[in-house]
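ok, trying the design again with the full structure, not the truncated one.
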């Protein structure tokens, strides 16, 4: 059982036993340094709609430049953001100095330093094998908000099975939670672009 809230400094760099994917880190560092997603300061509509109003401890997985972390921090959450990009995490901290960050390659699983969280957010990042471990890091009654791109030749985002889930995969990976919302289809992002997504919101069961 993870400890409740292990101490983490404002900015932490960790490594797993495997070497961090320098290719992924460099690619995302270059994109964020060039201003990628600079116009996307709005949070995910799913996060905005389903984040609990009471605040608490939140984990933002594959946080990027921190648009969802910033929203959560401004709404009463103590936020820990994980991402492979140092530059993206720097941008997250610049947007809100209350955000704590951990530099980590999620292809290596989750860092051991994580505790229990009232809210875990995974938006537009596909790594379904992480879901059982993420669910283990939910506090009793904690909430998971997940959105991944759905397999489609239309809409925003990269193509190919590596980046897009098959129909039903996300809900199946989250089946141990009490489902509050599940959806597969098109959504209109706040910037007006269409995305084809799978969404899941669920709460962990209270013993």
């Amino acid at each position: 059982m993870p400890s409740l809230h292990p101490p983490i400094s404002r900015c932490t760099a960790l490594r797993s036993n495997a070497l961090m994917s320098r290719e992924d880190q460099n690619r995302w560092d270059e994109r964020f340094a060039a201003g990628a997603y600079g116009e996307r300061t709005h949070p995910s509509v799913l996060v905005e709609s389903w984040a609990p109003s009471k605040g608490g401890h939140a984990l933002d997985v594959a946080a990027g430049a921190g648009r969802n972390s910033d929203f959560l921090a401004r709404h009463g959450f103590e936020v820990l953001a994980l991402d492979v990009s140092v530059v993206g995490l720097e941008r997250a901290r610049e947007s809100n100095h209350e955000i704590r960050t951990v530099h980590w390659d999620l292809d290596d699983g989750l860092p051991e330093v994580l505790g229990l969280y009232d809210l875990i957010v995974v938006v537009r990042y596909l790594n379904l094998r992480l879901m059982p471990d993420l669910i283990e890091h939910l506090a009793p009654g904690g909430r998971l908000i997940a959105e991944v791109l759905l397999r489609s030749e239309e809409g925003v985002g990269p193509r190919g099975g590596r980046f897009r889930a098959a129909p039903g995969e996300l809900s199946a990976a989250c089946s141990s939670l009490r489902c509050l919302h599940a959806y597969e289809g098109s959504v209109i992002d706040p910037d007006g672009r269409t995305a084809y997504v799978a969404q899941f919101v669920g709460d962990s069961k209270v013993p």
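Keeping the full-length input from now on. Residues 13-20 have pLDDT under 50 and may be disordered.
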